[in-house]
Every structure is written in C-alpha cells, then in structure tokens.
Amino acid sequence: MKLDSEHLEILAAIVEQGGLTEGAEALGKSQPSVSRSMALLEARIGLPLFEPGRRPLRPTELGASLARLGSRIHRANKEASLLVQRYRQGLAGRLRVGGSPIFMDGVVASMIAEFQSRHADVQIDQSYGYLNQLEAGLRNGGLDVAILPLHPGQVPPDLEFTPLLSGNNVITCRAGHPLTRTRGITLNHIAPYAWIAPPIDSPLYRDLQRALKSIGQEDFRVNFSGGTLASIQSVLTGSDALTVLPYSVVFLSRRTIPLEALPLKIDHAERQLGILRVSDRQLPPAVRQLTTFLLAECQRLQARMDHDQQITRRRG
Amino acid sequence: MKLDSEHLEILAAIVEQGGLTEGAEALGKSQPSVSRSMALLEARIGLPLFEPGRRPLRPTELGASLARLGSRIHRANKEASLLVQRYRQGLAGRLRVGGSPIFMDGVVASMIAEFQSRHADVQIDQSYGYLNQLEAGLRNGGLDVAILPLHPGQVPPDLEFTPLLSGNNVITCRAGHPLTRTRGITLNHIAPYAWIAPPIDSPLYRDLQRALKSIGQEDFRVNFSGGTLASIQSVLTGSDALTVLPYSVVFLSRRTIPLEALPLKIDHAERQLGILRVSDRQLPPAVRQLTTFLLAECQRLQARMDHDQQITRRRG
DNA sequence: GAGCTTCATAGCATGACGCTATATTACGGC
DNA sequence: GCCGTAATATAGCGTCATGCTATGAAGCTC
Hints:
By secondary structure, chain A is of the alpha/beta class.
C-alpha cells in the first residue's frame, strides 16, 4: 500500500512543530485541513499516529518514525523546488556551447569564465566545430548554442543568428615585427614572410586565401598550420611569420601576448561573430542568461575596439 | 512554489524506465494518467522536462535532475510503507513493559529474550513497579502493558487483565538444604531458619507474612531483604535461609540455580500472574504479538509445572 | 511512406483537499 | 471538581487532480 508523501510531510510538520495547529500554520494550511489529512492517513494505515486523548497532539512511536521519513521527503521536495527556481533564473543547469576554435579560444572562453564566476552552478560543456557540425549539433540537441562567424545569408531557415561582433580579419604579426615599423605597407613588403595557417578545412583558412588574394598575393608560403590559437600565438610571437586572425581575437590577445595588427586593408567576408541557435526551441534559462551576458560583453568589447581603432588610425 | 512529490516520483519512474509507457506500467497506472501528470508538472514549473519531439521520451537536464530527487522521495516513501507493514505485523516498534520485579526477572525476562530473537526490530523498554505504579503508567501512556500477579477482584474497571500463570507461592531453599531431606515438615522444623524477604513494600513481602502466619509462624527473623531476584538467589544458594517465591520462578530458576521448593502447603492469595492493560486502548501490534507470545509460553510452562508437581507429589 | 510504437487529448466519474463555521474534548487554574 | 481557554474534530460545500477508456497525433523503423 502506497502512502501519500504529502501526508507524511504534514505529519512531519506537526511533529516538528509540536502540535497540529502549529503544524498547519507552518504549512500555510487551515487546521481542519491538516486534521483531516491526518485522519485519512491514520485510516489508511489502520494504526494510530498520535497518542489518543492528548491535547497538544503527541505522536506514537510509529507516528514519530513516519514523521522522520516525512521530513526526509520534505527536504527532497524542497530541494527540487529550489533547483527549479535556480534553473529558472539561469543559475543552475548544464549548458553545451559549440563554436569555431579560434573565436572560442580567443574571445568566448574568457567571457565564459567571467560568466561562470557569477553563475557557479552552471556546468558548461564546450566543444569545437565548424558550421556543418555545429548545425547538426544544434538540430540533434547535442548543443544548446553555437558561436561562430557567419554571413547573414548563410543562416539556415530553421536556425536563428544573433550577431555579437564584427568579424573582420586582420593580418597579424608579433609586436616589434619589422613590418610594424613600415609605413604604407604594400604587397612587396609582405611577400618575403612566411604564413601561419589555421586548419585547411576551417573558414579562417579560406579567409586567409581570400585576404591574400585581395591584396594580390595569390601564392603564399605556409610554415605552420593546424594549430589552435595557443599554438598560433606561440609561433607568431616566436617568429616573423604572419597570419590572418579576427581583429577581436588580436585585440583581446594583446592584453597578454605581444601581437600587432598590420594597418593593411584586406578583403573579408561580410561575416559577423554571433550566436546560432534553433529558432523554435525554448532554451534553458541558463543558456538565455549566457547569450544575454555574451551580448553585453561583446557590445563593450566592440566599443573598445572601435575606440582603439580610431586612435590607431589617427596615429597611423 | 511547492512541487507535487507524486509528480516527481512519476518523473523518476519514467526516466528510470526509459519511457512514459514503461514508466506508467511500472507505476501501475494508465499511460494517459502519467502523461497528464507530467504535463501538469511541466506547466507548473514552466520549463520543459523532456526533450521536445523525441519519441522514446528523453528528459532534459532539469528533468533528469528532478528525477533524481523524485527517486529519493520514492525511496523514502517506500521505506515508510515498509515500516508500516512491519509495524502492523508486530515486527517493529517500541514496546514498554512494566512488571513486578520478581516475576519480570524470574519468568518474563527469558520469554522476552526469546520473543526478541524472533522480532529483532522490536525495541523493548522494561521497567519495574507494583500495582499502583503500573496502573499509573498504563493510564498515562508510559506503559503499553504491565505484568504482575493480581487477584481477579483487584482489577480496576478501566483495565483488563489476562491471566498467564497461577501465582501460588512456595517456601524455597537451596538444593541440599537440611529441610529437603526432612519428611513431614512442620513449623518446628522451619523455625530455626532465617528468612530472606523481598522489599517491604512489595506484595510478595505481604505474601511471606501471610504464608508464615498460615503455618503458625507469626514472628520470623529476616536476615536479608530488599534485593532483586538475582540477589535473593545468591543468598539463598549460599546459606540455609528460606524465602517465599512464586512457584513458577522457582521452577524456572532451577534450570540454572540449585533451588528447591519445600513440600509444605502454605496459604496464598488467589492471585494469578497476568498481563494488565488499558481495556479500550488499541494496542500496537508488537504489543499484541508479545502478549500472544507470552500467553503461549506460559501455557507451556504451566503444563510443565503441573506435570512436574504430579511427579513430585507421587514421589514425595 | 506504411505500419508500428509512443505519446497526447477528450470526456467523464470519483475522491482528495481547500476553506469557513461549529461542535467536541483536553488542559490548567482556582 | 468546575470553568474558561485552547486544541482538535466534524460538517458542508466548491474546486481541482486523478483514475479510467477511447481516440487522435506524431516519431521511429524498415
């Protein structure tokens, strides 16, 4: 025979409060209501839960034992309510973010760190991938959101894209690179240097091709490729090699790594770094929290980058 | 906002069974019923518990977390049902038995030991007292049952008395006592010996007085008094002192302690050892179990005593 | 895409639970 | 031992959750 958990919780309240009336009050119910609940419970188990003829109602041995279990149930139930509440506020839950490697490493990861310091109970599973993989992940539920640079026209109809940052690329080299002291850089100045390339299947690699083609350099020498941002940064700072990176990545990397963006205009796809998600699916609150947070952070970052570029332009 | 524990348990069942239909089956409910319960729960918390558009229903992160809590609730609830069941069968609970010291020590304790070996989860609180105390204990709920020798006419109207054993007393001495070799014992034979007396306020003390008076010995010498059965037994076996004890106590003591009952008829109150309890109060099942058990044990004991006395009589 | 499985919805009956008002019963003080 | 007070139980009524069967809708599998 199954007992009603609610009844056990009520019993626990009565025993803990030392009386039916107080118990009812603690539960926010009327006294007759809990009285009847206890009568029902007693009738079902067929045994007395309270000593008969005692006015501040006192539990029997069985009543006390059941009250302990009721208390356990109450705690679990309360924990459930709390979990829902925290989940609703985006303070709890698991969150699966996928994104293109360079952006994730160079821009998003530090923001996620900041986010997590505020939302300690949100567990974040980060993964890497390009458009196709990320789309698949979003559709099959393996990802909550994807973060990647995308052309507005590229967005599939069942997905929704929220831009975060402009996605313009720049030619990057180490600080103190000979080219940083060169005024009016041309193709001729660049030609001698070797290139660091991202993985061949990455959009960034195609960006690199396109950028170099746009400045007339069809054919280029690659002496390092395939690494993640950390490797690219290391090779970049340890050599005179050049590469193409999103400006935002360079901008943020400069806080800790001596990099420079060359003031050479290159063609770049009209892409924007942004958040891609399934449009009709209701996102977990933690995800909404994160997207809101990233949006705000990126707006600040964009403002700082714009400000910085104005100064650079004025100086340059 | 409070969640329905029942809903959480249902959720747990669904998640554990890997589907709504299986969950419903495991719970012994119809599929539509649990479906609606989950719809209600989802509506209340305002967040999805299951991945949308998945046919073997799969929980979301939140759903899975709540299911874990539901499982905890389920375990506690099941434990409660089990407790009730065992309690109802008299296999669990606490049981407070009070009784007159000599009987409790000499007869009841060993039976209780036997009872407890069969009902391991029954906790027994034993206490000692005479009629007045025991009555009070029964009435104020401090005792479940009392075990004592009582005259049928002495039973108060609100209490109920179930006889267990005849309460006749005998004069007792150590085995090998000079009197045991004496035929046709008279007052003169007994006169020289000192007496061991129970506590002065005990009915047994009055029995002793009465018994001795009935054989003409108004005035007797007490050289030990106030001890419990264990002490009385020790003094008895270590000296030639005499005492008056219920025959049942002597009978059972003989299994381990060398005592003899003198074949001297003495007057004794028409009392019977029995169980006293409040007549209108429903007793915990464990108590009923114990009383039934004691009844059976005492019947067997009575039969053995009767048998033994026939033999003794034939021999004597 | 056919067929099967799985889940959701509809409709109805029953029972539990909420409340207020009121009766009953134990406790404490004199 | 009685009385006032406090604590609990009962009565009566409306609402909502839950049980069921029958049936519709949507995924999954091959």
